[in-house]
Amino acid sequence: MRSLWLLLIPCLSLSLAPFVQTEKGLEFPRYDGNDRVIDINDKNYKKAMKKYSILCLLYHKPIPDGKELQKQHQMTEMVLELAAQVMEEKEIGFGMVDSHEDVKVAKKLGLVEEGSVYVFKGDRVIEFDGLLSADTLVEFLLDLLEEPVEVIGNTLELRAFDRMEEDIRLIGYFKNDESEYYHEFKEAAEQFQPYIRFFATFEKSVAKELTLKMNEVDFYEPFMEEPVTVPDRPNSEEEIVAFVTEHRRPTLRKLRAEDMFETWEDDLEGIHVVAFAEEEDPDGYEFLELLKEVARDNTHHPGLSIIWIDPDDFPLLIPYWEKTFHVDLFKPQIGVVNVTDADSIWLEIDEQDLPTAQELEDWIEDVLSGKVNTEDDDDDNDDDDEDDDDKDDKNPINRFCFSRI
Amino acid sequence: MRSLWLLLIPCLSLSLAPFVQTEKGLEFPRYDGNDRVIDINDKNYKKAMKKYSILCLLYHKPIPDGKELQKQHQMTEMVLELAAQVMEEKEIGFGMVDSHEDVKVAKKLGLVEEGSVYVFKGDRVIEFDGLLSADTLVEFLLDLLEEPVEVIGNTLELRAFDRMEEDIRLIGYFKNDESEYYHEFKEAAEQFQPYIRFFATFEKSVAKELTLKMNEVDFYEPFMEEPVTVPDRPNSEEEIVAFVTEHRRPTLRKLRAEDMFETWEDDLEGIHVVAFAEEEDPDGYEFLELLKEVARDNTHHPGLSIIWIDPDDFPLLIPYWEKTFHVDLFKPQIGVVNVTDADSIWLEIDEQDLPTAQELEDWIEDVLSGKVNTEDDDDDNDDDDEDDDDKDDKNPINRFCFSRI
């Protein structure tokens, strides 16, 4: 089949004859072949900024000499082209900035991390360091188009808020939408949109349920039952921003496609405590509840940040993780991963008899004290090779998700 | 950029240099260029059946003459190749069957719908009529590898079961895993895996919470509070299969990538009642709760089957739906869609003041009586064009999800 690849790409602008369906209403967009992504340079960047309400710039390393690497680079352009096509009517523009050719522009715009997409919206710059797939990027941008603060109008809507335990979220109680403090809150919300969710209510009944006083703002860490109140109400934008920035890294966080690489880079001394648990699976759910309990008991431990991965969210990574980490992801797992070489060590778990919260806590203590560490086992070298971005063709892997171009 | 496409595909077996990351552990698989998908014919299909524990066959129309259509066909092969590579270690094989060239094989294997993937596992054939993307297909296959029946061991695990209100699910109470009735239940479960979930418990305490008698099986329709008990316990495999088959189409169902086209094809007299509601959004959540209430009150109405779409699950379709249906998907919507031309009509909804359950019910009554129908408005022609699988290049759309190859 390899020989056919060369013919492949132009088809993107044509319909898939083998799968023409008689029913209408579920047709997925496909790239129409029109070039929308701008090659940003010193001359055109200001115009691009003016033209679009939102401009997304991929900051990338110079296009390498190797033909293949060039082609891979073009795969990425294609993701942006499809996103650009889909978002065209929303007045969202896309461009690419070469980290060598366009040093000046990059400096002016404050682009730093190669491989990240920088999103310019008004006077804000938002870094997207998530999965570079069209649907993840489009979902991210659609979230950016929503109001920075969602208003909770009644106690039924409050239940929607209660269900979002995976997310960092804030909620404030204000007199009405003219309130100056609501305005400050809204300004703060824009600083974190869409990564951190901000809610407000103007209803006494809702505030009562949340035990919120007028102009008070509560901060909810993921999976914690009790919120922390931002001190010294009423709060200015700066106070809220400072508080969120300080409390941002949670004790337990779920890996999300939209910021998965940013999360992975935020390791603690080169390691991550990683828990795999399928929330839809009874064992996975039970294990997750345990994990939440441990996180709640240890939320004040600055050195503890557990990453929960629901394998269902990343099906294509499951076989890779199972091979790399030597774990069976059909059952819950918790381990320590060294992010420099993906070397790892995992807690022995009996599916029929999950560890108690105490046993889990003791194991985590051993991890934090270094008693449990990834160097204890040493037969991982062959796997480490597979993790390297080298020319190992047996198990080629990639940060870029080809599977979801 | 178009001119670059021709160079594009061979890169799939190479690493993405611009995005080499220093951290390891999140590398996505990319196609290594090895040919794994078998071109199935009269001579090799038996061997393929023997070789793999699970064999996935895409039943497709003959490869057309047009170069572009051929290329589109190859895009599909690429999806299968990536899935085949990722699932290689799980002993899952992939092949393609041409509906004209391989009539005999297709007949022998019972392949009917062009565009579907038929999955052969033991003596079972499962049709996959969902989104043809590598991750959706791989997730589907991983679900097939799990046990057909999940055992609920305690009341905490039962909470995981309670949370799955979106899914059709059954749960039975049996003496132990040697019970002949459990065996019958398991056999029935295999007939519906992975579309319908089967659970069992051997614990009295769990059975008590579910008010299940020994050897009793309860059937849970999505979003319904009370289950229906399969009559005449203890039940044989045949009885359970017959019951599930009869009760399979729910009053309210959520559109899922793994069977979205099958669901869409299951229209009632050419129309669907479609509700868009973002569960993560307070308004969307409130509207969804309303919808569930209406569904519960009308679950015995044979002519009623509402499809709930959470726009968050299909970001790339949002702009397409907004354009095709003339709706704003940032707020909840409910309407009638004619599946032959995607013509539609939508209920006027005031976000600040959502309709009452009664108003929603009245509107649905009008839909079922034909009083509300898609022919009432007639300025949709320009949009209908966009829905056709013709050569309209302005808004090319596709059943095949290029965005998630």
UniProtKB/TrEMBL annotation, chains A, B:
It comes from the Eukaryota. PANTHER family: CALSEQUESTRIN, CALSEQUESTRIN-2. Residues 1-22 form the signal peptide. Residues 368-397 are annotated as: Disordered. CDD domains: PDI_b'_Calsequestrin_C (cd03074), PDI_b_Calsequestrin_middle (cd03066), PDI_b_Calsequestrin_N (cd03065). GO terms for biological process: regulation of cardiac muscle contraction by regulation of the release of sequestered calcium ion. InterPro entries: Calsequestrin (IPR001393), Calsequestrin_C (IPR041860), Calsequestrin_CS (IPR018233), Calsequestrin_middle_dom (IPR041858), Calsequestrin_N (IPR041859), Thioredoxin-like_sf (IPR036249). It holds the Pfam family Calsequestrin. Belongs to the calsequestrin family. Its main location: other. GO terms for molecular function: calcium ion binding. It is found in: Sarcoplasmic reticulum lumen. This is Calsequestrin. Keywords: Calcium, Glycoprotein, Muscle protein, Sarcoplasmic reticulum, Signal. It comes from Salmo trutta (Brown trout). One of its GO terms (cellular component) is sarcoplasmic reticulum lumen. The keyword Signal applies. Calsequestrin is a high-capacity, moderate affinity, calcium-binding protein and thus acts as an internal calcium store in muscle. Calcium ions are bound by clusters of acidic residues at the protein surface, especially at the interface between subunits. Can bind around 60 Ca(2+) ions. Regulates the release of lumenal Ca(2+) via the calcium release channel RYR2; this plays an important role in triggering muscle contraction. Plays a role in excitation-contraction coupling in the heart and in regulating the rate of heart beats. Gene3D superfamilies: Glutaredoxin (3.40.30.10). Residues 375-391 have a biased composition (Acidic residues).
